[in-house]
Design brief:
single chain; alpha/beta; TIM Barrel; 8-stranded parallel barrel; 4-stranded antiparallel beta sheet; 12 strands
Length: about 325
Protein backbone atom coordinates (compact mmCIF):
# COMPACT_ATOMS: atom_id res chain seq x y z
CA UNK A 1 0.00 0.00 0.00
CA UNK A 2 0.99 3.64 -0.41
CA UNK A 3 -0.09 7.08 0.78
CA UNK A 4 -1.80 9.71 -1.37
CA UNK A 5 -2.45 13.23 -0.07
CA UNK A 6 -5.23 15.65 -1.06
CA UNK A 7 -4.32 18.91 -2.78
CA UNK A 8 -7.53 20.83 -2.26
CA UNK A 9 -6.58 24.25 -0.91
CA UNK A 10 -5.93 27.34 -3.01
CA UNK A 11 -2.22 27.53 -2.21
CA UNK A 12 -1.36 30.49 -4.40
CA UNK A 13 2.38 31.08 -4.17
CA UNK A 14 2.82 28.20 -1.71
CA UNK A 15 2.54 25.52 -4.39
CA UNK A 16 6.27 24.80 -4.76
CA UNK A 17 6.73 24.90 -0.99
CA UNK A 18 3.87 22.44 -0.48
CA UNK A 19 5.31 20.04 -3.04
CA UNK A 20 8.70 20.22 -1.32
CA UNK A 21 7.07 19.49 2.03
CA UNK A 22 5.28 16.42 0.65
CA UNK A 23 8.55 15.11 -0.75
CA UNK A 24 10.25 15.71 2.60
CA UNK A 25 7.74 13.54 4.47
CA UNK A 26 7.97 10.81 1.85
CA UNK A 27 4.67 11.23 0.00
CA UNK A 28 4.75 10.47 -3.72
CA UNK A 29 1.06 10.63 -4.73
CA UNK A 30 -1.58 13.36 -4.62
CA UNK A 31 -5.35 13.60 -5.08
CA UNK A 32 -6.15 16.76 -7.04
CA UNK A 33 -9.38 18.67 -6.29
CA UNK A 34 -11.11 21.34 -8.43
CA UNK A 35 -10.65 23.97 -5.70
CA UNK A 36 -6.88 23.56 -5.95
CA UNK A 37 -6.95 24.67 -9.59
CA UNK A 38 -8.37 28.10 -8.78
CA UNK A 39 -4.89 29.42 -7.97
CA UNK A 40 -3.64 28.90 -11.52
CA UNK A 41 -4.19 30.87 -14.72
CA UNK A 42 -7.86 31.86 -14.55
CA UNK A 43 -7.84 32.64 -18.28
CA UNK A 44 -7.09 29.05 -19.27
CA UNK A 45 -9.84 26.59 -20.18
CA UNK A 46 -10.48 23.91 -17.56
CA UNK A 47 -8.77 21.04 -19.37
CA UNK A 48 -5.74 23.21 -20.19
CA UNK A 49 -5.49 24.21 -16.55
CA UNK A 50 -5.61 20.57 -15.41
CA UNK A 51 -2.93 19.62 -17.93
CA UNK A 52 -0.65 22.42 -16.78
CA UNK A 53 -0.93 21.52 -13.09
CA UNK A 54 -0.58 17.78 -13.66
CA UNK A 55 2.60 18.36 -15.70
CA UNK A 56 3.98 20.57 -12.93
CA UNK A 57 3.20 17.95 -10.27
CA UNK A 58 4.68 15.10 -12.30
CA UNK A 59 7.78 17.17 -13.08
CA UNK A 60 8.30 17.65 -9.33
CA UNK A 61 8.62 13.89 -8.86
CA UNK A 62 5.10 13.36 -7.51
CA UNK A 63 2.23 11.64 -9.30
CA UNK A 64 -1.44 12.55 -9.53
CA UNK A 65 -3.28 9.47 -8.25
CA UNK A 66 -6.85 10.84 -8.32
CA UNK A 67 -8.56 13.64 -10.22
CA UNK A 68 -11.75 14.93 -8.61
CA UNK A 69 -14.12 16.39 -11.21
CA UNK A 70 -17.21 18.45 -10.45
CA UNK A 71 -20.26 16.61 -11.78
CA UNK A 72 -22.88 18.39 -9.68
CA UNK A 73 -24.81 19.88 -12.62
CA UNK A 74 -25.03 16.43 -14.19
CA UNK A 75 -26.11 14.78 -10.93
CA UNK A 76 -28.84 17.41 -10.58
CA UNK A 77 -29.70 17.06 -14.32
CA UNK A 78 -29.40 20.81 -14.87
CA UNK A 79 -29.41 22.31 -18.41
CA UNK A 80 -25.60 22.26 -18.39
CA UNK A 81 -25.56 18.51 -17.65
CA UNK A 82 -24.42 17.25 -21.05
CA UNK A 83 -21.84 19.98 -21.46
CA UNK A 84 -20.35 19.07 -18.09
CA UNK A 85 -20.22 15.41 -19.09
CA UNK A 86 -18.52 16.33 -22.37
CA UNK A 87 -15.75 17.99 -20.34
CA UNK A 88 -15.60 14.96 -18.05
CA UNK A 89 -15.10 12.68 -21.06
CA UNK A 90 -12.20 14.82 -22.27
CA UNK A 91 -10.71 14.78 -18.79
CA UNK A 92 -10.95 10.98 -18.65
CA UNK A 93 -9.19 10.67 -22.02
CA UNK A 94 -6.44 12.96 -20.79
CA UNK A 95 -6.15 11.00 -17.53
CA UNK A 96 -5.49 7.87 -19.54
CA UNK A 97 -2.66 9.49 -21.49
CA UNK A 98 -1.22 11.06 -18.31
CA UNK A 99 -1.29 7.75 -16.36
CA UNK A 100 -3.77 9.07 -13.79
CA UNK A 101 -5.60 5.90 -12.68
CA UNK A 102 -8.69 7.31 -10.96
CA UNK A 103 -11.32 9.99 -11.49
CA UNK A 104 -13.76 10.71 -8.69
CA UNK A 105 -17.26 12.07 -9.23
CA UNK A 106 -17.20 15.15 -7.00
CA UNK A 107 -18.85 16.48 -4.91
CA UNK A 108 -20.45 13.41 -3.36
CA UNK A 109 -23.85 14.41 -4.71
CA UNK A 110 -26.67 16.95 -4.36
CA UNK A 111 -25.94 17.43 -0.64
CA UNK A 112 -22.50 18.85 -1.53
CA UNK A 113 -21.27 17.82 1.94
CA UNK A 114 -19.79 17.61 4.40
CA UNK A 115 -19.48 21.37 4.96
CA UNK A 116 -22.73 21.98 3.05
CA UNK A 117 -24.81 19.92 5.49
CA UNK A 118 -25.77 21.63 8.79
CA UNK A 119 -24.88 20.09 12.12
CA UNK A 120 -21.09 20.26 12.00
CA UNK A 121 -19.06 22.04 14.66
CA UNK A 122 -15.47 22.19 15.90
CA UNK A 123 -14.50 20.19 18.99
CA UNK A 124 -11.33 20.04 21.11
CA UNK A 125 -9.66 16.74 22.01
CA UNK A 126 -6.54 15.68 23.95
CA UNK A 127 -4.26 18.62 24.59
CA UNK A 128 -6.67 20.88 22.72
CA UNK A 129 -6.19 19.70 19.16
CA UNK A 130 -9.28 20.52 17.11
CA UNK A 131 -11.36 18.54 14.64
CA UNK A 132 -14.88 18.64 13.25
CA UNK A 133 -17.84 16.85 14.81
CA UNK A 134 -21.47 16.32 13.81
CA UNK A 135 -24.75 16.40 15.74
CA UNK A 136 -28.02 15.14 14.32
CA UNK A 137 -29.92 17.33 16.79
CA UNK A 138 -28.02 20.43 15.67
CA UNK A 139 -28.64 19.55 12.03
CA UNK A 140 -32.38 19.29 12.61
CA UNK A 141 -32.43 22.62 14.45
CA UNK A 142 -30.60 24.38 11.62
CA UNK A 143 -32.81 22.87 8.93
CA UNK A 144 -35.91 23.99 10.84
CA UNK A 145 -34.77 27.63 10.58
CA UNK A 146 -35.13 27.54 6.77
CA UNK A 147 -32.41 30.22 6.58
CA UNK A 148 -32.13 31.17 2.90
CA UNK A 149 -28.73 32.79 3.54
CA UNK A 150 -27.16 29.65 5.03
CA UNK A 151 -24.59 27.77 2.95
CA UNK A 152 -26.86 24.70 3.18
CA UNK A 153 -29.97 26.53 1.91
CA UNK A 154 -30.01 24.31 -1.19
CA UNK A 155 -31.55 21.57 0.96
CA UNK A 156 -34.80 23.53 1.17
CA UNK A 157 -34.62 25.62 -2.01
CA UNK A 158 -33.94 22.75 -4.44
CA UNK A 159 -35.99 19.62 -5.04
CA UNK A 160 -34.77 16.19 -6.09
CA UNK A 161 -36.38 12.84 -5.32
CA UNK A 162 -34.16 9.91 -4.39
CA UNK A 163 -35.22 7.83 -7.40
CA UNK A 164 -34.50 10.75 -9.72
CA UNK A 165 -31.06 11.17 -8.17
CA UNK A 166 -30.42 7.46 -8.70
CA UNK A 167 -31.49 7.78 -12.34
CA UNK A 168 -29.26 10.84 -12.80
CA UNK A 169 -26.26 9.03 -11.32
CA UNK A 170 -26.80 6.05 -13.60
CA UNK A 171 -27.05 8.40 -16.58
CA UNK A 172 -23.75 10.04 -15.63
CA UNK A 173 -21.99 6.70 -15.37
CA UNK A 174 -23.48 5.38 -18.60
CA UNK A 175 -22.04 8.42 -20.39
CA UNK A 176 -18.61 8.18 -18.78
CA UNK A 177 -17.97 4.44 -18.44
CA UNK A 178 -17.32 3.62 -22.14
CA UNK A 179 -14.77 6.44 -22.27
CA UNK A 180 -13.20 5.31 -19.00
CA UNK A 181 -12.93 1.71 -20.17
CA UNK A 182 -11.22 2.80 -23.40
CA UNK A 183 -8.82 5.07 -21.48
CA UNK A 184 -8.06 2.58 -18.71
CA UNK A 185 -9.32 4.98 -16.03
CA UNK A 186 -11.48 3.93 -13.07
CA UNK A 187 -14.44 6.03 -11.84
CA UNK A 188 -15.09 6.35 -8.11
CA UNK A 189 -18.04 7.33 -5.92
CA UNK A 190 -17.96 8.29 -2.23
CA UNK A 191 -20.72 7.60 0.29
CA UNK A 192 -22.26 10.84 1.54
CA UNK A 193 -20.62 12.49 4.55
CA UNK A 194 -22.28 12.93 6.97
CA UNK A 195 -24.15 9.67 6.29
CA UNK A 196 -27.53 11.01 7.38
CA UNK A 197 -30.50 8.87 6.26
CA UNK A 198 -32.62 10.20 3.40
CA UNK A 199 -35.58 10.40 5.80
CA UNK A 200 -34.09 13.47 7.54
CA UNK A 201 -35.21 16.12 5.04
CA UNK A 202 -31.93 16.68 3.22
CA UNK A 203 -31.47 16.39 -0.51
CA UNK A 204 -30.97 12.69 -1.35
CA UNK A 205 -27.62 11.02 -0.79
CA UNK A 206 -25.87 7.68 -1.06
CA UNK A 207 -25.85 6.59 2.57
CA UNK A 208 -26.33 2.82 2.49
CA UNK A 209 -24.86 -0.16 0.60
CA UNK A 210 -28.20 -1.09 -0.96
CA UNK A 211 -28.30 2.04 -3.13
CA UNK A 212 -24.67 1.77 -4.23
CA UNK A 213 -25.18 -1.88 -5.14
CA UNK A 214 -28.15 -0.86 -7.29
CA UNK A 215 -25.81 1.49 -9.13
CA UNK A 216 -23.24 -1.28 -9.63
CA UNK A 217 -25.96 -3.55 -11.03
CA UNK A 218 -27.24 -0.85 -13.38
CA UNK A 219 -23.72 -0.06 -14.65
CA UNK A 220 -21.85 -3.38 -14.46
CA UNK A 221 -18.30 -2.30 -15.23
CA UNK A 222 -14.98 -3.17 -13.60
CA UNK A 223 -14.15 0.53 -14.04
CA UNK A 224 -16.83 1.67 -11.57
CA UNK A 225 -16.19 1.44 -7.85
CA UNK A 226 -15.77 3.18 -4.52
CA UNK A 227 -13.61 5.69 -2.84
CA UNK A 228 -14.14 3.82 0.44
CA UNK A 229 -14.16 6.26 3.37
CA UNK A 230 -13.50 4.44 6.65
CA UNK A 231 -14.78 7.37 8.70
CA UNK A 232 -18.03 7.83 6.80
CA UNK A 233 -18.80 4.13 6.89
CA UNK A 234 -18.12 3.89 10.65
CA UNK A 235 -20.16 7.04 11.36
CA UNK A 236 -23.19 5.42 9.73
CA UNK A 237 -23.16 2.64 12.31
CA UNK A 238 -22.40 -0.26 9.96
CA UNK A 239 -19.80 -2.95 10.59
CA UNK A 240 -16.86 -1.48 8.71
CA UNK A 241 -15.06 -4.81 8.49
CA UNK A 242 -18.10 -6.45 6.92
CA UNK A 243 -18.29 -3.56 4.46
CA UNK A 244 -14.65 -4.04 3.51
CA UNK A 245 -15.24 -7.77 2.97
CA UNK A 246 -18.40 -7.13 0.96
CA UNK A 247 -17.04 -4.52 -1.43
CA UNK A 248 -13.53 -5.95 -1.43
CA UNK A 249 -14.73 -9.34 -2.69
CA UNK A 250 -16.47 -7.49 -5.52
CA UNK A 251 -13.19 -5.66 -6.35
CA UNK A 252 -15.05 -2.37 -5.88
CA UNK A 253 -12.67 -0.67 -3.44
CA UNK A 254 -10.46 1.58 -5.58
CA UNK A 255 -9.13 4.11 -3.05
CA UNK A 256 -9.28 4.68 0.72
CA UNK A 257 -10.06 7.70 2.89
CA UNK A 258 -8.32 6.60 6.07
CA UNK A 259 -9.52 8.39 9.21
CA UNK A 260 -10.75 7.62 12.70
CA UNK A 261 -13.99 8.56 14.46
CA UNK A 262 -15.60 8.46 17.89
CA UNK A 263 -19.34 7.69 18.04
CA UNK A 264 -21.95 6.90 15.38
CA UNK A 265 -25.19 8.51 14.25
CA UNK A 266 -27.41 5.57 15.33
CA UNK A 267 -25.77 5.07 18.75
CA UNK A 268 -24.85 8.59 19.89
CA UNK A 269 -26.77 10.90 17.56
CA UNK A 270 -23.55 12.11 15.99
CA UNK A 271 -19.82 11.60 15.93
CA UNK A 272 -16.46 13.26 16.46
CA UNK A 273 -13.66 13.14 13.93
CA UNK A 274 -10.39 12.44 15.75
CA UNK A 275 -6.70 11.73 15.12
CA UNK A 276 -5.83 8.32 13.77
CA UNK A 277 -4.78 6.98 17.18
CA UNK A 278 -7.60 8.57 19.18
CA UNK A 279 -10.88 7.01 18.05
CA UNK A 280 -13.10 3.95 18.23
CA UNK A 281 -11.41 2.07 15.40
CA UNK A 282 -8.12 0.21 15.63
CA UNK A 283 -6.65 1.41 12.36
CA UNK A 284 -4.16 -1.45 12.05
CA UNK A 285 -7.12 -3.84 12.05
CA UNK A 286 -8.67 -1.81 9.24
CA UNK A 287 -5.51 -2.20 7.17
CA UNK A 288 -5.46 -5.93 7.93
CA UNK A 289 -9.03 -6.22 6.66
CA UNK A 290 -8.12 -4.36 3.48
CA UNK A 291 -5.09 -6.56 2.94
CA UNK A 292 -7.22 -9.67 3.47
CA UNK A 293 -9.43 -8.74 0.48
CA UNK A 294 -6.40 -8.05 -1.69
CA UNK A 295 -6.40 -4.25 -1.52
CA UNK A 296 -2.97 -2.88 -2.43
CA UNK A 297 -3.80 0.67 -3.47
CA UNK A 298 -3.44 4.05 -1.81
CA UNK A 299 -4.76 5.41 1.46
CA UNK A 300 -5.43 9.09 2.08
CA UNK A 301 -5.53 10.41 5.69
CA UNK A 302 -8.27 12.80 4.58
CA UNK A 303 -9.46 14.98 7.53
CA UNK A 304 -6.56 16.10 9.70
CA UNK A 305 -6.17 17.30 13.32
CA UNK A 306 -5.51 21.01 13.78
CA UNK A 307 -2.53 21.31 16.12
CA UNK A 308 -1.31 24.37 18.00
CA UNK A 309 0.60 26.82 15.80
CA UNK A 310 -0.12 24.77 12.69
CA UNK A 311 -1.65 27.38 10.41
CA UNK A 312 -0.63 25.53 7.25
CA UNK A 313 -1.89 22.16 8.66
CA UNK A 314 1.51 20.58 7.99
CA UNK A 315 2.12 19.24 11.50
CA UNK A 316 -1.20 17.41 11.44
CA UNK A 317 -0.41 15.98 8.01
CA UNK A 318 3.09 14.91 9.02
CA UNK A 319 1.66 13.19 12.13
CA UNK A 320 -0.89 11.30 10.01
CA UNK A 321 1.65 10.28 7.36
CA UNK A 322 4.11 9.07 9.99
CA UNK A 323 1.41 7.12 11.78
CA UNK A 324 0.26 5.44 8.57
CA UNK A 325 3.82 4.54 7.62
CA UNK A 326 4.25 2.91 11.02
CA UNK A 327 1.03 0.94 10.46
CA UNK A 328 2.35 -0.19 7.08
CA UNK A 329 5.47 -1.53 8.77
CA UNK A 330 3.38 -3.28 11.41
CA UNK A 331 1.21 -4.75 8.67
Amino acid sequence: MKISISLSRDLGGLFDEEITFLRQIGVCNVDLYPSFLSAFDADLQYLQKVQKIVKKIHKSGLKVHVLNFDTLDALMRKPTCEKQLDVACELIKYSGTASIPFLRLWPQGPRRGPSMVPGRFRKAHRGGYMMDAFSLELMRAELAKQDLTARWAHHFTETLALEQYYANLVHVLQRLVPVAEDAGVKLMMHFDDPPVPNSEGLLPGITNPELINRVFEAVPSKNVGLLFCCGTRYESGVDIFEQIRCFGKLSKIFHIHFRNVRGTIPSTGGYEEVALDDGDMEMLEVLKALKAVGYDGAVNPDHLPILIGDEERRAGLAFAVGYIKALFLAL
